[in-house]
Amino acid sequence: MRITLNLDDQLIDAARHRAVEDRVSLARVIEDALRSTLSKPMPTHETIRLITAPGIGVRPRVNLDDGSVLLDTMDDQT
User: Fold this and answer.
1) Predicted confidence band at 49 (pLDDT cuts at 50, 70, 90)?
2) Do residues 19 and 25 make contact, with C-beta atoms less than 8 angstroms apart?
3) Which of 28, 50, 58, 63 is the S-S candidate for 24 at Cβ 3.0 to 4.6 Å?
4) CA distance 19 to 26
5) How many domains, in total, are found in the chain?
6) Is residue 44 a part of any domain in this protein?
C-alpha cells in the first residue's frame, strides 16, 4: 500500500542511515519500527479514587487552577 507521511527531517535521516547500515530499504526500516511499536501492549490507565472530606467546599475567590493563589491562601491560614 502506498501512503504519504510528513515525518520529522531528523527522524527520516536517522531511518535512512539505519537502512544503509542494515542494507535494507527505507520502507523496511519504517515497517519494522511500526511493527515493534504496535506489538507493545498499550499502557493501562489506573483509576484514581479521590478521598473527599465533608465541608463547605472551596473558599470564595480561590481558583484551584492557580497555584500561586493557593499558596497565598495557605500562607494566610498559618
Assistant:
1) confident
2) yes
3) 28
4) 5
5) 1
6) yes
The answer to whether residue 47 is domain-embedded is: yes
- Tell the residue number behind the cell numbers 507521511, with chain if given: 5
What is the pTM for the complete model shown?
0.53
Burial (0-12, 13-18, 19+ Cβ within 10 Å), 19? middle
CA dist., res. 11 & res. 8, Å (int):
5
Look at 7-11, 36-40, 43-47 and tell me which has the smallest mean pLDDT. 43-47
User: What is the rounded distance in angstroms from the CA atom of residue 74 to the CA atom of residue 69?
Assistant: 9
Full domain range(s) for residue 37: 1-53
Closest CA to 74 of 52, 50, 62, 65: 62
